Amino acid sequence: MNIKMFYKAITGVALGCTISLSSFAEVVVIVHPSNNATFSQKAVQRIYLGKEKKFSDGKEALPVNQVPSSAARESFDSDTLGRSTNQVAAYWSKLVFTGKGIPPKELDNDSAVISIVAENPNAIGYVDSASVTGTVKAVSLN
């Protein structure tokens, strides 16, 4: 292998690592700033899987998802829901088919989720932590 091919190979590996690391963004759950409910991973799982319709304070919960192709969705599904995006889709397909549920609305990106959550005190969503603005509140999942 000559030196030119070696440098091309190293550059390709470095670029691949950079792309892979960018897909592991930290995803945070966001709510309207007026939402004073308490949150846990289990509570968020139950809301996003349609098993719970209300926050801990008794107010209605309206979850919004990102599209399945987004990195935030993939990270949220695996880290928070404990399932792959395909498993979550299969879960909701079964509930829809049997008439037992309707999946959360899907939005295109972080800014769309932030916009909906900022406008609706009952909404809950998730975004890349770098996208959080002062119009929403990031919550920790105790």
End-to-end distance, in Å? 53 Å
What gross morphology would you assign? globular
For the record, the CATH class is: Alpha Beta
Q: Enter the CATH topology name.
A: D-Maltodextrin-Binding Protein, domain 2
- Percent range for β-strand residues: 15-25%
Report Rg: 18 Å
Strand order of the largest sheet: 3-2-4-1-5
Tell me roughly what share of residues is in helical segments: 40-55%
Structure explained in plain terms:
With 142 residues, the protein is an alpha/beta fold. It has helices at 3-22, 41-48, 71-81, 85-97, 110-119, and strands at 27-31, 62-66, 105-107, 123-128, 137-139. 44% of the residues lie in helices and 15% in strands. A five-stranded mixed beta sheet has the order 3-2-4-1-5. The longest helix is centred in the first third of the chain and has 20 residues, at 3-22. The protein is globular, with a radius of gyration of 18 Å. It starts with a helix and ends with a strand. The model is unreliable at 14-22 (pLDDT under 50).
Keywords:
single chain, 142 residues, alpha/beta, D-Maltodextrin-Binding Protein, domain 2, five-stranded mixed sheet
Short description:
This protein is α/β, with parallel strands linked by helices and 142 residues long. It has a single domain (26-139), classed as 3-Layer(aba) Sandwich (D-Maltodextrin-Binding Protein, domain 2), CATH 3.40.190.10.
